[in-house]
Design brief:
By secondary structure, the chain is an alpha/beta fold. 34% of the residues lie in helices and 23% in strands. The chain is built from 14 helices and 18 strands. It has helices at 16-20, 45-56, 73-76, 90-97, 99-122, 143-155, 166-173, 192-205, 253-256, 274-277, 317-332, 376-391, 412-421, 423-430; strands at 33-41, 61-64, 80-81, 134-137, 161-165, 180-184, 188-189, 209-211, 218-222, 225-230, 233-242, 260-269, 286-288, 296-299, 305-309, 341-351, 358-363, 366-370. Strands 1, 2, 8, 9, 10, 11, 17 and 18 form an eight-stranded mixed beta sheet that branches. Strand 9 and strand 10 (225-230) form a beta hairpin. The radius of gyration is 21 Å and the shape is globular. 51% of the residues are buried. The structure holds flavin-adenine dinucleotide. Flavin-adenine dinucleotide is lined by residues 41-47, 64-67, 71-74, 76-80, 82, 215-216, 243-247, 249, 251, 264, 266, 308, 347-349, 372, 374-378, 380.
Length: 433
């Protein structure tokens, strides 16, 4: 994306969230040279929550967003607020990272959804927040063993989690296709774009400066400070945060080459008739089942079903996604007879081979929280508090996500296509016990 001060900003993805979010706060392009304690590149939930938590503590923060607040993954996702990773369970984290870093990360994940909803309540953020819990239902009876282990591992860490039998999850979801579920009580769902924009508003009210249409074009270190240049301005700051996740571009090339990007689609139905909507997810929880080929469901405030999918073959996806998803909806909720889709949009997910979100130190006083592997909403918001601690002097080694070396990979765009194609294998595994 190339911008000048006269450039028209790209619109948000044509999502349900963009159609239903309250107006974003007014923001402008950076056209000056400004100073700050911390310059944050990226105006998604990570960058904006960081700016908010910093501003609360009197740390001056400037956010530079290339497009609009919430333009990246934060405005395009399905809005599930989940206090856990997709592919890494607590004991596995301890085995990989050691007891100290592992348990620190587990506590960080466990508390991330509560922190997100508490922040929403504290600032009265209007984002259709519903904290009724998040369920991971077992799509095959054999997956109950995995969920039992997961339940035991989280319970050992004082997590508010339950193990539901088939009847209990059928009552919550309004479908009897599942064999039971793990249920994390602090989870829930939001309009994610409204959350990002609400964080921007709260951060600005607390004194942070948020510039949109202001891509960081270069970063350099001079006289012990960071200088970040945009097309028509610059920021000089003691510290630098790069919070660009799957939308990381050429600013820090080795960072971009450390992430495998896949395209994930999100869709919503039209508002369901009241009598049907009442029986579909009557508990209004959020849910994504045990398939490796993601199968998420939730409703929005108007009674639309919101779900999503990734296609293995990244060709002609816009046309192929509709029948694919309509079939999925019919499998889980045959009572929904009108399976036409009102909104269809997509976004990029950043994956890493070891599936671990991490922070990278990218220079003295410079940090990047990144690679959320498709679970960055609660983690990104919670990272904001961690980064405010870091800006006050806490070591990067002591934060909630592990500090890892950047590992650039060759042929990174081909790896993205391969990762997408790997779904075929996931589907085979999902069909087995
Ligand atoms: C379709 C989809 C569904 C998902 N579903 C879920 C879900 O239900 N629950 C969940 O927890 N997670 C989900 N995720 C993942 C989640 O959306 C992300 O992990 C999270 O939004 C990352 O937030 P962020 O603030 O770190 O990055 P982003 O929100 O991606 O923000 C990065 C920003 O950086 C900006 N940027 C990039 N380069 C520059 C530059 N040089 N200068 C200035 N700005 C720049 C971009 O414009 C972008 O706005 C999903 C993701 C997608 C795509």
């Amino acid at each position: 994306m190339a911008f000048s001060s006269s450039t028209v900003l790209p619109d948000h993805a044509p999502s349900l969230w963009a159609a239903t979010a309250p107006p974003a706060p007014e923001t402008v392009q950076l056209t000056d040279a400004v100073q700050a304690d911390v310059v944050i590149v990226g105006g998604g939930v990570t960058g904006l929550s960081s700016a908010l938590h910093m501003a609360e503590r009197g740390i001056s923060a400037v956010v530079l967003e290339a497009a609009r607040t919430g333009f990246g993954g934060s405005g395009r996702n399905s809005g599930h607020i989940i206090p856990a990773l997709g592919a890494r369970d607590p004991d596995m984290l301890v085995a990989k990272l050691g007891a100290d870093a592992g348990e620190r990360m587990i506590a960080f994940l466990r508390d991330s959804a509560s922190l997100t909803f508490d922040l929403i309540r504290k600032y009265g953020i209007d984002c259709d927040a519903v904290q009724n819990g998040w369920a991971q239902p077992a799509h095959r009876a054999s997956r109950m063993k995995v969920l039992e282990r997961r339940y035991e591992e989280w319970t050992r860490r004082q997590t508010r989690v339950d193990l539901l039998d088939a009847g209990a999850i059928a009552d919550k979801l309004g479908t009897d296709v599942y064999h039971g579920a793990l249920f994390m009580r602090t989870g829930g769902h939001v309009n994610p774009l409204a959350l990002a924009q609400g964080l921007a508003r709260a951060a600005m009210e607390q004194g942070a400066r948020v510039y949109t249409g202001s891509p960081a074009l270069s970063v350099e270190r001079a006289d012990g400070k960071w200088r970040v240049a945009t097309p028509s301005g610059q920021v000089i700051a003691e510290r630098l945060v790069v919070a660009t996740n799957a939308y990381t571009g050429a600013l820090i090339p080795q960072l971009a080459r450390s992430l495998v990007r896949i395209i994930n689609y999100q869709v919503s139905t039209h508002p369901m008739p009241k009598e049907i909507a009442a029986g579909v997810i009557p508990s209004d929880i959020s849910s994504s089942d045990t398939r490796a080929d993601l199968y998420p469901f939730r409703k929005d405030r108007a009674g639309r079903l919101v779900t999503g999918a990734t296609l293995a073959l990244p060709l002609n996806m816009d046309a192929r996604i509709r029948p694919w998803i309509a079939e999925r909806i019919g499998n889980a909720f045959p009572q929904i007879t009108d399976r036409r889709l009102e909104y269809v949009w997509n976004g990029r997910i950043a994956l890493t081979p070891n599936r671990l979100p991490r922070i990278h130190e990218i220079g003295p006083g410079a940090i990047s929280p990144i690679a959320y592997n498709g679970r960055g909403m609660a983690i990104g918001v919670a990272m904001g508090r961690e980064l405010a601690d870091w800006a006050e002097g806490k070591s990067a080694d002591a934060l909630g996500l592990p500090k890892l070396e950047i590992t650039p990979m060759p042929f990174i765009s081909s790896l993205g296509r391969l990762a997408q194609a790997a779904l075929v294998r996931y589907r085979q595994l999902d069909a087995r016990d």
